[in-house]
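Predict the holo structure. Ligand: nicotinamide-adenine-dinucleotide.
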Amino acid sequence: VDLKENPYEILVGSGILKDLGAVLKPLRLGRDAFIVTNPIIRRYHGRQISAALKAHGFSVSFIEVKSGEKSKSARTAFQVISRVAALSLRKAPFIVAFGGGVVGDLAGFVAAVYKRGIPFVQVPTTLLAQADSAIGGKVAVDLPVGKNLVGAFYQPSLVVSDVNVLSTLDKRQIRNGLAEIVKYGVIADKFLFHYIEMNAAKALSLHPMIMTEIIQSCSRIKARVVAADEKETKGLRTILNFGHTVGHAIEAANQYKNYHHGEAVALGMRAAAGISCRMGMLEDADARRINAVLTALGLPEKIRGIPCAQVLKCMAFDKKFKAGENRFVLATGIGSVRVIERINPRVIRSAVNAVIGRK
Ligand SMILES: NC(=O)c1ccc[n+]([C@@H]2O[C@H](COP(=O)([O-])OP(=O)(O)OC[C@H]3O[C@@H](n4cnc5c(N)ncnc54)[C@H](O)[C@@H]3O)[C@@H](O)[C@H]2O)c1
Ligand SMILES: [Zn+2]
């Protein structure tokens, strides 16, 4: 990630977790690794990460938080900070975020604020985290009134994505991550999109070579966008929100219950493609390709149990809508998008309606 201050590398591959100690050593982040993780991930992969670090002379302490979004709270963050403080007397600590987006955002937040910042590395273990959330330095915890409301831009010193750790994810989490990957294809990379079309079944079964290829492509795109707009001041990061305007509204309307983020984003991308066609920006054939690849990946086709009016209402609260004006990332083809404001609400309603299921 080509940043002016503190650029960092993203390593992607199959079986590279065992090299973590070796690649960390020359970075001189500290001697004492505090691995923030959850019990599930530790049970599957804890021994491997610990051995990889100890083999190169690092001391290793695990700090576990409960699995799930609830751990992205100020309370948990301060519990983790207290543990790091208690365990790191006379030590040279750095944080290893070993988990999905929840652990990554939380551990990154802890690293950002403890002693006004200690080094941290991301070792993402979900598809969503490898393709997206571990890169870019957005760290945060949630408040009861909304997600990600307390946070910072705080970049990791390294990201290590071993596609082999994905093998223990359940199928729904895999599909969840693949939605975000389709997003990268639509916004920036027609070859990636085509690659997913051709390899949907292999991606679903986590074929190591295919996954390495896919995660590398997504990482490159995210790295490029982040390097161009590190702190989200230039509006360039906005394109990463393709499918997220309607997606977030679906999550909120459903009180984050039935839909995982990626599933809601898949539905949001279907709606965004629909708006793009209605605006004359996207050919119907390309919208059909977007819908078809989402279906091939087992992602939902229709919004169920939420009326259109409810989705539209939740969208009006989107924090990305400036002063009540709507703003959408729309596709102009496979691999290119534009940000459009003040779209006729009827167009939005019609496109959302087309994605609403009967029951
Ligand atoms: N910082 C960013 O730029 C950014 C971007 C997108 C999303 N996010 C955040 O990411 C979070 C969602 O991340 P997520 O989808 O990775 O969810 P998650 O971190 O909750 O992980 C999903 C589930 O998978 C389990 N798990 C993780 N790795 C596993 C493995 N290898 N094997 C078996 N189980 C495993 C976890 O215990 C959890 O139950 C949200 O809080 C969201 O706000 C952040
Ligand atoms: Zn997302």
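The mean pLDDT is 95. Strands lie at 9-13, 32-37, 59-64, 93-99, 120-124, 138-143, 146-153, 158-162, 327-333, 336-341.
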